[in-house]
Every structure is written in structure tokens, then in C-alpha cells.
Design a protein that fits this description.
Layout lengths: L7 E6 L2 E8 L8 E9 L4 E4 L7 H42 L3 H35 L1
Antiparallel strand pairs: 1-2, 2-3, 3-4
Length: 136
């Protein structure tokens, strides 16, 4: 089993990850995880852990992971928005078919404000894109 393991392990955390080098040659067939760096995805920073010096291969592997991770997060972000569209449709159906007056009183104002805010931003962004297209 241990021969199938990668050389590096990335423990995802908010805005980045901890990077470990795996040592599969440890005694008793145990896998040792040696932390070598901390990644900040927001600013692209790679900080060596403790007094470590990262090798060129370490940095290559870390940067490759960061590139892949950014793509995964971008896909998830769009997917989350598409799920929100589905949820808005489900909400409209719930309001029309099952919501009680008390439930509507509890959600109407906050939902209307959120929808108004979203609509305002979407309309402004679309207008900006259309104006930019006319300038080109």
C-alpha cells in the first residue's frame, strides 16, 4: 500500500494548505509526515516550515498543487452559484405552494433585500461589460 502514496501530502485549510513530505521508509512500515511548508492561496505565498529550506522539487510540486487547487476552487465557485440559482427556484416554488403566512413573515424582508442587492450588482456588472464591448 505505501508504495502507491505520493511524495507530498497537502492538508487543506482556509485559504491554503499545510505541506508534508511523506517518508514511507520509516520503521515498522509507518508513514511519517514531515511538515515542510505552509501555503497561502490568497497571496500565493509559500512559507517554509520552521528552519526548512525548500528544494527546487519541493517548490515545483507545491506550485503545481497550487495551480490545480486554484482551478478546483474556481470550478466549485461557479458550481455553488449554479446551486444558488436552483435554490432560488426551489424557494419560489416553496413560497408559492407551501409557505405559511408566519414563514413568509420570517423570510420576506431579508430575502427581498438580498435579491435586490444581487440584482443591482448583476445589472451594474452587465452594463459595465456592455459598455466595455462598445469601446473595443
Amino acid at each position: 500500500m505505501t508504495s502507491d502514496l505520493p511524495e507530498y501530502y497537502f492538508r487543506v485549510r482556509d485559504n491554503g494548505a499545510l505541506v508534508f513530505r511523506l517518508d514511507q521508509a520509516a520503521r515498522d512500515r509507518r508513514i511519517e509526515m514531515d511538515q515542510i511548508a505552509v501555503i497561502n492561496m490568497r497571496n500565493g505565498e509559500i512559507k517554509p516550515h520552521a528552519n526548512r529550506e525548500l528544494t527546487a522539487e519541493d517548490l515545483r510540486q507545491i506550485r503545481a498543487w497550487m495551480k490545480d487547487r486554484a482551478q478546483v476552487l474556481a470550478r466549485r465557485e461557479v458550481d455553488d452559484i449554479l446551486r444558488a440559482v436552483d435554490h432560488l427556484n426551489l424557494t419560489a416554488q416553496w413560497v408559492q405552494s407551501r409557505a405559511t403566512d408566519a414563514q413568509l413573515d420570517a423570510i420576506t424582508d431579508s430575502l427581498l433585500m438580498a435579491m435586490h442587492d444581487l440584482r443591482t450588482v448583476l445589472v451594474r456588472k452587465k452594463a459595465d461589460r456592455l459598455m466595455k464591448g462598445k469601446k473595443d
